[in-house]
Amino acid sequence: NFLPHLKDHLYAHVQGLAYDGDEHDFTDAEQNSVLITDNKLFEHSILWVNYTTYDLRCKQNSINPRTHADLMVMSHEEEWTHPYWYACLIRIFHVNVEHYESPDAIWCKDYNLARLIADYHLS
């Protein structure tokens, strides 16, 4: 299942589709138009992220599946249910895509927010 999901993500990226949290299911022809150079994924142990703080300062942070695996990003949901999405980083990859720019990809498992609230009595 990983490769079709990766190709869907890469195809959406090269088509300029903004990520909104919804998964796109593209046709086999669209997926096959994404050519991963030499069919190689390059795994990395750390992903460095540059970001701007609320007071407009430039900062950098790292994401590491072994030591800093928990992620929190702004939610893209239309209905305001919770302002953030939470995930656990599984692995970090880099792929070279022929004829397009070379995007990075991370593999995450979404946390179940309702289960977290119940388990940690956050309600």
Write the SSE topology.
Layout lengths: L1 H13 L13 H5 L3 E9 L2 E6 L5 E6 L6 E5 L9 E14 L6 E7 L2 H7 L4
Antiparallel strand pairs: 1-5, 2-3, 4-5, 5-6
Q: Which key phrases capture this entry?
A:
123 residues; alpha+beta; 6 strands
Poorly predicted sequence stretches spanning 5 or more consecutive residues:
none
- Beta-strand portion reads 35-45%
Q: Tell me, briefly, the overall form.
A: globular
What's the Cα radius of gyration?
16 Å
Portion of residues within helices:
10-25%
The largest sheet, given as strand count, sense and whether it forms a barrel, is: 4 strands, antiparallel
Chain-averaged pLDDT: 78
What oligomeric state is this?
single chain
What would your notes on this structure say?
This protein has 123 residues and is of the alpha+beta class. It contains three helices and six strands; from the N terminus they run ααββββββα. The strands form two sheets. Strands 1, 4, 5 and 6 form a four-stranded antiparallel beta sheet that branches. A hairpin with a 5-residue loop joins β2 (47-52) and β3. The chain is globular and about 40 Å long.
